[in-house]
Design a protein that fits this description.
Layout: E1 2-6, E2 13-18, E3 36-42, H1 46-56, E4 61-67, H2 76-88, E5 96-101, H3 103-115, E6 121-126, H4 129-135, E7 140-145, E8 148-155, E9 160-164, H5 173-190, H6 192-206, H7 210-230, H8 245-255, H9 262-277, H10 282-293, H11 305-312, E10 325-330, E11 333-337, H12 342-352
Length: 353
Amino acid sequence: MRSITVELGERSYPIVIGSGLLGGGFDLSAQVSGPDCLVVTNETVEPLYLEALLADLAGKQVGAISLPDGEVYKTLETVEDILDTLVEGGANRDTTLVALGGGVVGDITGFAAACYMRGVNFIQVPTTLLAQVDSSVGGKTGVNHVSGKNLIGAFHQPRAVLIDTDTLKTLPDRELKAGLAEVIKYGAIVDADFFAWLEDNIEALVGRDAAALAVAIQRSCELKAAIVAEDERESGRRAILNFGHTFGHAIERCQGYGDWLHGEAVAAGMVMAARLSGGDGASAERLGKLLERAGLPVRPPAIAANDLLAAMGMDKKVQKKQLRFVLLRTLGDAIVTSSYDAARLDDVLEAAS
């Protein structure tokens, strides 16, 4: 078992990573300050891990709600279902919400926790690789709007993140690969040595080698924890974590949420961003080759350039109606900038149409 701390002063919290943590392998009840909690999961994860999670919450009064599975349900209506359950159960400000599932469950649960009685505690128990290395850490919560991804939300940090790597054994291959996109992102934007390690170990990761996955998860969490501690509310450096996401979110919006998985859209978006970055093309080439070896798409589906550009206009990094992108100086060194080659952007978008 390994523990990483997200350093946020009085709101600091641990990311606990290990095998066999669910089913009584970790005293999660110690992170629940009040007498009761509500577990939020979905219909896919519930039969796999809810019973095991309950063993980690011994001594607490626990309720549960199971949501339908899928990005299409990441809506205000789903949040309302959770809030109704809390109200009907007489939940107070000392109630803790526990998110058991992937990124959609985590984002929805965190947002419900941020809203209920102006904020109650919540805990992340991510069961997908993408959630374990990215969305469960950092306190970004929210839901989608018909006009854009994650447009409705709040920063609300969890009390703890519990990552049982054994949950990856039941993760479908497609979702495992989608999670690898976010792992590769960390190497691309901030750690060239980690990127090189991924190049050497990508087949082991795709093949679910437990030791390789443990290294990748730990390093990803270490990098994200350090960036979040530096810039909690994304007013500066944290925005580099959105590498590929401006394009990726636009792809998801244009395709319809759930057609492409988030990690798949981000993979194609990272290659687009790397090409927009310019230079000699070496970074884009290495990135594309690694993503292909991970079984991820390196080009988007056919979408009209104007449609992609319109969807990108709702990106949360837009300032004064001007697009900003996360671009690469080189692998391991990313910046957020509104200075980009407009003609090259046109070329990148036209190549997707």
